[in-house]
Design brief:
The chain has 229 residues and is α+β, with helices and mostly antiparallel strands. It is 33% helix and 21% strand. Helix 4 links the parallel strand 8 and strand 9. The longest helix is centred in the last third of the chain and has 21 residues, at 176-196. Mean pLDDT is 93; it is low at 222-229.
């Protein structure tokens, strides 16, 4: 898969996933010290199996990851992950090995993973001298954008929660494992739309552009002493 980043959008090529309705997937999500994938550090992995019609699997994977930098106070508050917890958290290479063992060769599903989770993983793998995973990855943001060219908003998690009228009351947002549950519900809604349109595949198309997320004000340098996520 090839992801090409432009100033405000990105495109995807060299990816095709067939038999969308019948597969077992693995939903995954990451939390980090910030949004800038070139400098920030992963703080948490979450993953859970999913099959349409059967819902989430009984097994799941969740682990903190020791960050290589301090978590800004605003991010501690947002995620609930503290710098004190980082002192005892396992290092990335340990958690990544466990994560890869858990996901196996399943097709992965994420949200905004093409612009955040995958670049973060790739950079960390390079820094630790590890092999980047080769699983096919579906992104609910891209899947939604492909069938809704009329939508001009940035397709964020919050946008899709509102679009599909999902009830997230009581869910700890920005916890990697709990966010996997939200992604799974969004993915199910997207699959329902694909089925209604007679689509049972996702094929990347370089002519389709996804709008990149906008960095929230809480992460801007002028507001957070150099924080860029």
């Amino acid at each position: 898969m090839k992801i090409t980043f432009l100033p405000d959008t990105y495109t995807v090529e060299e990816l095709s996933v067939t038999s969308l309705m019948d597969r077992t997937y693995c939903i995954f999500d990451l939390e980090g010290t910030g949004i800038d994938t070139t400098v920030e550090s992963i703080t948490q992995f979450g993953a859970v199996p999913y099959k349409r019609g059967a819902g989430l699997g009984e097994s799941s994977f969740s682990s903190l990851v020791r960050a290589s930098k301090q978590i800004p106070a605003a991010v501690e508050k947002l995620t609930g992950i503290t710098n004190d917890e980082m002192l005892k958290a396992p290092h990335f290479n340990e958690v990544y090995e466990q994560f890869c063992s858990f996901i196996g060769d399943e097709v992965l599903v994420t949200h905004a993973g093409y612009e955040y989770d995958l670049p973060m993983l790739e950079r960390h793998c390079q820094e630790y001298g590890l092999t980047m995973l080769t699983n096919k990855v579906l992104d609910t943001k891209a899947m939604f954008t492909y069938i809704h060219p009329e939508v001009t908003d940035v397709v964020s998690t919050d946008f899709l929660i509102q679009y599909y009228d999902l009830n997230t009351e009581g869910i700890h947002r920005h916890d990697a494992l709990e966010d996997c549950g939200i992604i799974a519900r969004i993915f199910e809604c997207v699959l329902d739309e694909y089925e209604k349109r007679g689509l049972d595949h996702f094929t990347a198309d370089a002519s389709k552009h996804m709008k990149r997320f906008v960095i929230p004000e809480m992460y801007l340098k002028k507001e957070n002493e150099g924080v860029t996520e």
